Amino acid sequence: MDSKLSIYGLVGYPLGHSFSRAFFSEKFAREGIMAKYRNFELPDIALLPGVIAETPGLRGFNVTIPYKQAVMPLLDRLNPDAAEIGAVNVVRCEADGTLTGYNSDVYGFVESLRPLLSGGNHTDALVLGTGGASRAVCYGLRMLSLNVTRVSRTPGKDNITYADLTPDIMARNTVIVNTTPLGMYPNVDTAPDIPYERLTRAHVCYDLVYNPEQTLFMKRAEAQGATTTNGLRMLHLQALRAWDIWTHY
Ligand code: NAP
């Protein structure tokens, strides 16, 4: 193998079509970067140390479902954001063979939402869903100085439920983020169960889903005059941030 060839990759299971491989392969070809991006489809995260040992030139990798948390005990150190969020989606392989974990989802989310927020008009946010992605989203919203209320199907001490979404709550929370998979292809006719009639032009409705480009959640919000966006910009920004982490830090 060419000793100058750097290897990057994606760790997850199952992988199927990977945005990351297409994104980085195109970037490498376009910019003449001597690197390859490979999918590492691992049925068990315990296989990771073996894969790393067998991949000379590995500089870093992305981590996706279902290993964003499970990978953490296998790393030598965590960037403070990743430690606080409790999820890692980027790993950098250091020259001494150690591994450092980062979270670039939070960067992608914050930088894609920031341009949509105007002055002091947005102070409170609802986060729909309490899964893996919601952790980075809640952390990012707090970075932007918003108060966060989590909404789940299940009552809990740290969240409200969809039945608790009163007109008052809907009026105060002018940022609403869908972190559930509702509306994602092929289930395009589904959407979170919120009182859409309470949305106004003051609301920003952000869907982490990006396939389809316009989800039912976004359509319903737009019909009320709300500003909407899908998760595509977040996806691009988190990938660019991963590249920065691998090559500049
Ligand atoms: P996840 O861990 O499966 O969590 C999703 C959460 O949504 C669950 O914890 C659940 O919360 C809620 N939920 C699940 N099924 C539901 C249903 N039928 N009805 C209502 N609520 C439901 O998924 P995730 O990893 O957080 O990812 C969530 C979405 O974000 C996916 O569509 C993923 O593709 C997308 N995503 C996008 C980006 C990006 O860069 N744009 C990055 C990461 C993830 P409760 O049980 O509390 O209701």
Could you write a compact summary of the structure shown?
The chain is α/β, with parallel strands linked by helices. Helices cover 31% and strands 22% of the residues.
Describe the structure.
The protein is of the alpha/beta class and 249 residues long. It is 31% helix and 22% strand. The chain contains 8 helices and 12 strands. The protein has helices at 19-31, 48-53, 80-85, 105-113, 132-143, 167-172, 216-223, 232-248, and strands at 6-12, 35-41, 58-63, 77-78, 90-93, 99-102, 124-128, 147-152, 159-161, 175-178, 204-207, 227-229. The strands form 2 sheets. The chain has a 6-stranded mixed β-sheet. Strand 11 (204-207), helix 7 (216-223) and strand 12 (227-229) form a beta-alpha-beta unit. Helix 4 crosses helix 5 (132-143) and helix 4 crosses helix 8. The longest helix is centred in the last third of the chain and has 17 residues, at 232-248. Residues 65, 105, 108, 129-134, 152-154, 179-182, 184, 208-210, 231, 234-235, 238 line the site of NADP nicotinamide-adenine-dinucleotide phosphate (NAP). Residues 65, 105, 108, 129-134, 152-154, 179-182, 184, 208-210, 231, 234-235, 238 line the site of NADP nicotinamide-adenine-dinucleotide phosphate.
